[in-house]
Amino acid sequence: MRAKTLVSMRSAALRAMLAAALAVLAACSSAPAEQRLRETIDAMELAAIERRPGDFMESVASDFIGDGSLDRAAMHNLLRAQLMRNQ
């Protein structure tokens, strides 16, 4: 049961991160949309790999709302918990 919950949380986190990356498009205006999205996702991925949750969250909109009750603060907390758990 616990493993199922963990998988569900990871799945929700990944969906939320993708949604956050898509939300960033609204803030960009100079490059084509697809290029901006790819650059933003790459930067967010690098920040996660390098264990920099603050840098990752810079690309997440302040009014972000994910699945269920996952808001920006909850997503930040989830990301930090994932990084701490996978040290």
Task: Tell me briefly what this model is.
It is globular and about 45 Å long. The protein has one domain. It is mainly alpha-helical and 87 residues long.
Descriptive account of the structure:
This protein is an all-alpha fold. It has one domain. It has four helices and no strands. The longest helix has 22 residues, at 2-23. The protein starts with a helix and ends with a helix.
Strand content: under 5%
Give the helix level as a range of percent: 55-70%
Count every helix, treating DSSP H or I runs of 4 or more residues as helices. Answer: 4
The count of domains is 1
Structural category? mainly alpha
List the secondary-structure elements in sequence, H or E: HHHH
Q: Low-confidence spans: pLDDT under 50, at least 5 residues?
A: none
Summary keywords:
about 90 residues; mainly alpha; globular
SSE topology sketch:
Elements: H1 2-23, H2 33-49, H3 53-57, H4 72-85
